[in-house]
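Structure first, sequence second, as always.
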């Protein structure tokens, strides 16, 4: 969604002290007597986020849970329950509804999350699905987008780009990584990569009132990005920067304790790709020197 709308919505909404963090991060943070509640919501629309005839409704259900859990992971929260709302196309509502629900159940069982409730509607439009996920914050607090400082190292999990070839449907929300990294106390800020490395890094720098300098040679490029580059006219690096839906973690790590950062966790690499800097904006460093970096990886023609 446009930044202008989000900025307006944030300013327009009534504020209450119980809402410790509202519109603008991966999740909201709601105060409680015990652990704070961490809440997020996401929708998937047929034709935009999935092609139903190609992937089938169960994969839609699994993806819907995955994208929400990825947001909880980016705040280092532990998932508790999800709430599902379906807008089903009239002609095959019962069948599609049951299959999506099966996919949601499979994903919830995998991550030990309860289904707390939901709503179903039938209409004449395409399939649209919504999920709200609720988790608990760790006693040591949550990762926010706004905590990066100049000097912090930019770290990404996994390999980036080309998710359209399959990963956008079947991915691992990085709950396990967050759980392993959070107690180390070295991550200052985090988000998940849903809009693409460039865009999500830019969002992090804006929230943190700083800039970022990325070493292009260090960005971990997925095999799928290389594969995509053979047919799209863009380089694999451009796909790694610009493609969305990697659902990897993007973090700011304290440089004085970077030695504590594992090289990988359960086979998922953690890679330093640059440094947050005081000069605002996105910058790329390569053999050609430092240049302004396009958040989408390339200039749209
Ligand atoms: Mg997110």
């Amino acid at each position: 969604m446009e930044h202008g709308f989000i900025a307006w919505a944030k300013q327009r909404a009534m504020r209450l002290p119980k809402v410790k963090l509202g519109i603008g991060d991966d999740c909201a943070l709601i105060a409680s007597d015990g652990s704070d509640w961490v809440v997020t919501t996401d929708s998937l629309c047929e034709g935009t986020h999935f092609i139903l005839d190609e992937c089938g409704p169960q994969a839609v259900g699994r993806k819907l849970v995955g994208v929400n859990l990825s947001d909880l992971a980016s705040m280092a929260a532990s998932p508790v329950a999800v709430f599902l709302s379906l807008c089903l196309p009239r002609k095959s509502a019962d069948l599609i509804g049951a299959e999506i629900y099966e996919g949601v159940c499979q994903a919830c069982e995998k991550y030990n999350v309860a289904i707390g409730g939901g709503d179903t509607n039938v209409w004449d439009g395409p399939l649209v699905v919504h999920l709200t996920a609720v988790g608990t914050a760790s006693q040591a607090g949550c990762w926010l987008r706004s905590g990066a400082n100049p000097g912090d190292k930019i770290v990404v999990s996994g390999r980036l780009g080309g998710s359209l070839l399959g990963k956008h449907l079947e991915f691992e929300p990085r709950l396990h990584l967050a759980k392993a990294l959070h107690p180390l106390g070295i991550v200052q800020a985090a988000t998940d990569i849903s809009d693409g490395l460039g865009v999500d890094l830019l969002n992090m720098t804006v929230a943190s009132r700083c800039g970022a300098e990325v070493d292009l040679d260090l960005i971990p490029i997925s095999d799928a990005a290389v594969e995509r580059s053979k047919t799209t006219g863009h380089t694999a690096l451009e796909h790694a920067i610009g493609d969305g839906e990697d659902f990897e973690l993007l973090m700011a790590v304290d440089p004085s304790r970077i030695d504590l950062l594992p090289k990988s966790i359960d086979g998922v690499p953690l890679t330093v790709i640059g440094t947050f800097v005081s000069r605002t904006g996105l910058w790329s460093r390569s053999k050609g020197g430092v240049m302004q970096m396009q958040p989408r990886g390339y200039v749209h023609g």
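Margin note: The chain has a mean pLDDT of 94.
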